[in-house]
Specification:
Helix content: 25-40%
Structural class: alpha+beta
Shape: rod-shaped
Oligomer: single chain
Radius of gyration: 35 Å
Distance between the termini: 114 Å
Strand content: 15-25%
Number of strands: 7
Number of domains: 1
Length: about 190
């Protein structure tokens, strides 16, 4: 009978004592990788929510710009006499207590409709005068005096410039955009 080799005996004893340690370390690494994967998944979900919210905000701003343009065209199509009286979506005075959040948008505004993104669009225009029924020459209207400079030919103009020394009344246009997921945005602009 041959005697066992001392090197082989020591190697076999060392292997049997290390088998459980490798499994324990592998389980710890597996748990750490699972937690890292869950954190990554949560981060991706948050980024998707932020991107979606930015898309909703951009669509609401575009809808608000469209409402401002529709209201501007409506005001520009009317004569000064027609703009002296209140109408649906238009007030011939500035309504000092006007608050877009408490305003009766369903009953007193002009509804444009719903766009492709699901935004419902309303607007209301106010003539910047203290009282309805007054002409644009009233002293209690917010006006700008024009100075005619040069030609009105060229890009980006909305028509011909008024004569020098003419007064133009300011109009405040407020748009409300009700978007998907119960979002509400307000956009306001002043024109003359």
């Amino acid at each position: 009978m041959t005697s066992p080799n001392p090197k082989t005996a020591r190697l076999g004893a060392a292997r049997s004592s290390q088998r459980g340690v490798v499994l324990f370390i592998a389980l710890i690494i597996l748990v750490a990788m699972t937690l890292a994967g869950l954190a990554m998944m949560r981060s991706v979900d948050t980024n998707n929510l932020i991107a979606g919210n930015l898309a909703f905000k951009s669509a609401a701003a575009s809808a608000g710009d469209a409402a401002i343009e529709v209201a501007r065209n409506w005001v520009m199509s009317k004569t000064p006499g027609q703009l002296q009286t209140d109408q649906q979506g238009y007030f011939a005075n500035w309504q000092p207590s006007f608050d877009p959040k408490t305003f009766d948008w369903l009953g007193s505004s002009a509804m444009i409709g719903t766009d492709n993104f699901g935004n419902t669009i309303y607007y209301v225009a106010h003539r910047m005068c203290a009282q309805s029924g007054q002409s644009i020459d009233a002293t209690d209207c917010a006006k700008v005096s024009t100075v005619s400079v040069g030609s009105t030919q060229g890009g980006g103009s909305y028509g011909s410039a008024p004569l020098a020394g003419t007064s133009l009344v300011f109009y405040r246009i407020t748009a409300k955009i009700e978007g998907p997921k119960f979002t509400v945005s307000y956009i306001q602009a002043f024109i003359y």
